[in-house]
Design a protein that fits this description.
alpha+beta; Heat Shock Protein 90; 2 domains; five-stranded antiparallel beta sheet; 7 helices; 15 strands; 26% helix
Length: 344
């Protein structure tokens, strides 16, 4: 799945519903859905917004269109700080209601969407993840490899996001980049996109060398901070180097490691000496990277059983609890699946 940004829609009361429906319809048309599918998406949005207002006193939707190698689709994340649910799985069934209605809302979302997951904690709130694909999904065995998800949201009031994420797979390596252009708005966007373009064509394998390449490539922009992680398939280890305040953490059963970046600005001033950091791969280990749009003291371990869900749900939970709402936000979460890169 690509790393396109999400658009934020606030659903605070019913006066917002018309603009939400119009905005999401415009995103959905970019995917190329049929008229019938667009009508079904309208029903999903109506149910999501109704639930936010009726049960949680309001919330927000994060929506993006995405492109896969052989498919495309629309991703919708519903977030609220409402009362939460004691039994989320039961609430996804038709006929179950807490407000004396017919109880078809969540059940209809589950039927109409290609993928849906509901995560809720009593007293904390609820996250509902929905994906609708342009082409029907076929039943396939879960492939081994590197699983990753991202969440990128512009600062409230901005239409362009100055944060960016890119994943590149080459022979023997998986290369990851998370960048944050200085400030926000169009100039920050230009800086991070210049870095992504340079990252795409860079042939270096060492993260420190890649950062030096980006530094030379973006010197005409306002600059950015960024972190590079390279997974070395042959040696089964992570190689990392970062400049500026991108938070990078490896979380596993054996090792929990916060990786500290060098001071500096890519495109303006780099340390005279930078070294890569090497860490071994562990089964089930999570790699989490985020910009300073997320508060520094975030905790991914406080959500019961969330690791059983799509990684997007964890990204949404961190966004829900720790987004500053005063800057662009980027969150990247990756996990090596079993049988890949020497793990079994």
């Amino acid at each position: 799945m690509d790393n396109s940004p999400h658009v934020r829609f606030q659903a605070l009361d019913r006066s917002y519903l018309s603009s939400i429906k119009k905005g999401i319809y415009q995103l959905a048309t970019l995917v190329g859905f049929t008229t019938q599918r667009l009508n079904e998406i309208d029903l999903i949005i109506a149910e999501l917004t109704s639930n936010l207002i009726k049960h949680a006193g309001g919330g927000e939707l994060l929506v993006r269109h995405f492109q896969l190698a052989s498919n495309a689709g629309l991703e919708i994340i519903s977030l609220d700080n409402g009362p939460g649910m004691a039994d989320p799985a039961r609430m996804m069934q038709d006929g179950i209601s807490t407000t004396n209605t017919l109880g078809h809302g969540l059940g209809s979302i589950k039927r109409l969407a290609d993928q849906s997951q509901l995560y809720s904690i009593k007293g904390w709130g609820t996250i509902l993840l929905v994906r609708i694909f342009k082409n029907p999904l076929t039943a396939q065995a879960k492939a081994s490899g590197f699983e990753f998800r991202s969440l990128i949201v512009a600062k409230p009031g901005e239409t362009m996001c100055g944060d960016g994420i890119y994943v590149k797979k080459t022979d023997g390596y998986i290369k990851l980049f998370v960048g944050d252009g200085l400030g926000h708005g169009p100039e920050a966007y230009t800086a991070v996109q210049a870095a992504i373009n340079a990252f795409r064509v860079c042939v270096d394998q060492r993260p420190a060398d890649i950062i030096r390449f980006l530094h030379r490539s973006v010197h005409k922009t306002r600059g950015l901070v960024g972190s590079i992680v390279v997974y070395d398939v042959q040696n089964h280890r992570w190689n990392w180097c970062g400049v500026g305040n991108i938070s990078t953490r490896l979380s596993g059963a054996i090792t929990n490691k916060n990786l500290l970046s060098y001071n500096g600005i890519i495109g303006m001033n780099l340390p005279s000496a930078m070294n890569d950091h090497f860490l071994p791969l562990e089964p089930g280990q999570l790699l989490i990277m985020c910009s300073d749009g997320i508060q520094s003291r975030w905790d991914a371990n406080k959500y019961p059983l969330i690791h059983r869900y799509d990684l997007t749900v964890l990204a949404a939970a961190l966004y829900k609890d720790y987004a500053r709402q005063t800057d662009d936000v980027s969150l990247f979460i990756g996990r090596m699946q079993a049988t890949y890169g020497g793990i079994s």
